[in-house]
Q: What sequence folds into this?
């Protein structure tokens, strides 16, 4: 491409030179003629205008000489162009020869590589053919061996059949009869020894089981022992003087109404001159209200706008505090890879108490016990640990239409917790039959933590009132003979008078009592209502 581009450039330049030379010669001739006319006009006297004179021989000679010079310059330029063209052609030939040489070398190299690859492929094909031949030979030998083995197997079966036939003829028993006689003899011989061995093993297992169970429980309680007692708290805010109550109430009660509406708690100002009580079923709301009230009292500016501002700030701080408390809890029990939403929910245990027992401390105690039991019994410690950690997560759900067990199962499924852990949550109060030893370990650890002395507090008068209320509801129906509140009020067992009831009344009455218990009695967890109707008839001989 460079060669042809140079040639085209060269010839186009030659044409331009020729055109330029002719144009210059013509322009110079016209200019000289005009100058001569001007000079003659200046020298001549004024006269009448005459026609221009014809060109003289001198003028023609000058023009011819100029044209000759232009031709000579054009020929010189043409010669230069031709010499340059010859040089370019020579360079092009050298370049083409060099390119041809390179192409020939590359072609020879590629041919050599292809020949080498062809030899390698041929060698591999030869090896594959050899291997296929070997495989065919092996298959033939295997077929021969199979045929030989089949012949030998047939011969062995025939020999075995003949031998069994001879043994039956000699002994006078068939094969099945001989087997029965042999087993009977062995059973008679070993039965006494087996009975003694079984009795010894049973006795040993009982002794070892009792001792091992004691060791496991003691060790679990030792690992779970903590240096705290049950906490009993109410949300109380101390005030410097009784005058602050007027600021808290505000004009026409606008401040107290704004505070209660924003926090969701009720304020009791009549308990003591120097105290304010805050009440709410939600412990987190109660804590937000307590901190907000203390800050408002300290600030002194108690008004609806300021109340909104302070409560918003405290809510943000409480969210951070609960998340940090949740992180501290999971690190304390050694559980990791928990979703952040679940960590925040666990952190709310910081402000949650069950019969005076703080939920975070109860969870730590139970998890340590459950992990120790699982390790001693060779159970899945991770399942037990996570089951103990999440067993009461439903208590902070805020949904009063479901029990904390049902809420805990729902929350665990929401966060894609494994089914084994969900079973531990669902069965830790025996609401469902135990499906695994891990579920039983969680139940035992929870029972130990809640039942140990000093762990929980409950007003015995309220406890007795609750049980009496359950039994009174059942006894209010005339077809009921007797009612018993058992399992600490978790089950109400009702016995009907058969003469005053029918079988269909069992289901109807159970639902009626259940609905009344839900409306009239405050009970922790679920209450199972069991209605029993039994008809007996006796006949005595004389």
A:
């Amino acid at each position: 491409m460079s060669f042809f581009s140079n040639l085209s450039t060269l010839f186009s330049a030659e044409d331009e030179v020729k055109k330029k030379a002719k144009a210059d010669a013509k322009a110079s001739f016209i200019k000289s003629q005009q100058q001569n006319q001007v000079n003659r006009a200046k020298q001549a006297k004024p006269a009448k205008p005459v026609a221009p004179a014809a060109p003289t021989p001198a003028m023609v000679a000058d023009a011819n000489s100029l044209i000759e010079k232009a031709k000579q310059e054009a020929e010189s330029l043409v010669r230069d162009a031709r010499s340059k063209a010859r040089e370019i052609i020579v360079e092009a030939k050298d370049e083409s020869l060099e390119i041809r040489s390179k192409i020939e070398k590359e072609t020879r190299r590629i041919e050599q590589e292809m020949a080498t690859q062809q030899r390698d492929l041929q060698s591999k094909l030869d090896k594959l053919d050899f291997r296929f031949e070997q495989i065919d030979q092996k298959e033939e030998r295997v077929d021969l061996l199979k045929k030989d083995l089949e012949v030998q197997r047939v011969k062995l079966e025939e020999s075995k059949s003949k031998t069994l036939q001879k043994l039956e003829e000699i002994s006078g028993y068939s094969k099945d009869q001989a087997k029965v006689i042999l087993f009977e003899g062995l059973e008679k011989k070993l039965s006494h020894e087996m009975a003694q061995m079984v009795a010894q093993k049973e006795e040993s297992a009982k002794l070892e089981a009792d001792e091992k169970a004691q060791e496991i429980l003691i060790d679990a309680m030792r690992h779970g022992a903590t240096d705290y007692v049950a906490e009993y708290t109410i949300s109380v805010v101390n005030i410097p003087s009784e005058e602050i109550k007027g600021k808290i109430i505000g004009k026409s009660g606008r401040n107290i109404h704004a505070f209660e509406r924003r926090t969701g708690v009720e304020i009791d100002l009549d308990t003591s001159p120097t105290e304010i009580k805050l009440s709410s079923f939600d412990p987190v709301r109660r804590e937000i209200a307590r901190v907000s009230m203390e800050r408002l009292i300290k600030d002194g500016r108690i008004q609806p706008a300021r109340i909104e501002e302070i409560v918003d700030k405290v809510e943000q701080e409480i969210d951070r505090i609960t998340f940090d408390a949740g992180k501290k809890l999971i690190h304390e029990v050694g559980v990791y890879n928990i979703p952040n939403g679940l960590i925040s929910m666990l952190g709310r245990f910081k402000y949650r108490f069950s019969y005076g027992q703080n939920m975070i401390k109860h969870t730590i105690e139970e998890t340590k016990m459950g992990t120790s039991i699982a390790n001693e019994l060779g159970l899945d410690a991770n399942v037990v640990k996570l089951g103990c950690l999440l067993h009461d997560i439903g208590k902070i759900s805020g949904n009063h239409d479901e029990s904390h067990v049902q809420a805990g199962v729902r929350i665990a499924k929401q966060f894609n917790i494994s089914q084994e852990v969900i079973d531990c949550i669902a069965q830790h109060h025996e609401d469902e039959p135990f499906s695994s030893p891990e579920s039983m370990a969680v139940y035992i650890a929870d029972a130990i933590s809640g039942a140990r002395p000093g762990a929980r507090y409950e007003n015995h008068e309220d406890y007795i009132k609750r049980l009496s209320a359950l039994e009174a509801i059942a006894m209010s129906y005339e077809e009921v003979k007797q009612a018993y509140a058992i399992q600490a009020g978790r089950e109400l067992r009702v016995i009907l008078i058969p003469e005053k009831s029918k079988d269909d009344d069992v289901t109807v009455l159970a639902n009626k009592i259940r609905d009344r218990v839900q409306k009239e009695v405050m009970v922790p967890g679920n209450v199972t209502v069991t209605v029993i109707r039994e008809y007996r008839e006796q006949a005595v001989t004389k």
